[in-house]
Amino acid sequence: MQKVRFEVDGATVVGTLRHPGTDGPVPIVVMAHGFALLAANGLEPFAQRFAELGLAVLTFDYRGFGPSGGELRQDVDPWRQLDDWRAAIRFARAVPGVDPAKVVLWGTSFSGGHVLELGSEDPNLAAVVSQVPHVSGRATVLAIPVVTAAKLTVLGVVDCLGGALGREPVYTKSIGRPGETAGMNQPGSYEGYTALIEPDSGWRNQMTARIALKLPFFSPNLHAARSTVPTFIGVAVDDRVTPAKPARKLAKRMGAELHEYPGGHFDVYRGEGFDRIVADEVAFLRAKLGLPATRS
User: 166 exposed, middle or buried (CB, 10 Å; 0-12, 13-18, 19+)?
Assistant: First the structure.
């Protein structure tokens, strides 16, 4: 593994690159995390499985998060994050020993929506893997308790107005227990989310409040159906964060490969939930990338 860096609008994005070191160009999987999490928080088990297939793997952190640069810290801005993804794709295609025609995008939760959006605009991608994805701004907002959504909206307005006046950002928690003002506070979310946090990873339980005004308008399902890229969508049937129903509908419209898993939003990251979904993702990548069935 090696640390890598690339620039986006004058800020440095930091990532980790794994390369199998084999002869000949290899496919590459580009990965980033979901809502206000870092690559160090739960992506490693997935990246390791993909590396065991003989694939190169690039994980990265968005501007404003963890080791990456960027002036506005902890800003969960989907459109800015999409720009980071586009830069990561360009970087991945230029990595020596990588087949630029075999770039795979892997996203989860919020970034699961990002990769679906990107699949609709880049037909040269080899495949897209999207698990427990955010696909509808409306559906995700409706999954937030009403009182919490109202508080976040007020904070978001104050944050946006303050930003326009050059004031310091207004921050709130990205994850909280039920009743706390946070981006996610549905039952079970705090335990599932914080279980992903590695000690000394640099993660902060903080986000700019302005995301509350942006989230309703970020709906990858408005564009993703036009994608021609082979796509895997994995949903959790009891997901209280990014509901499964809109993702099912989108998968049908896209002709995507849909897989459903028991449990909630965070159950795909560990235990049997992880084993099930990663096995299906590996099988999907074997098929779409033409990998020998005997490689493991």
Answer: exposed
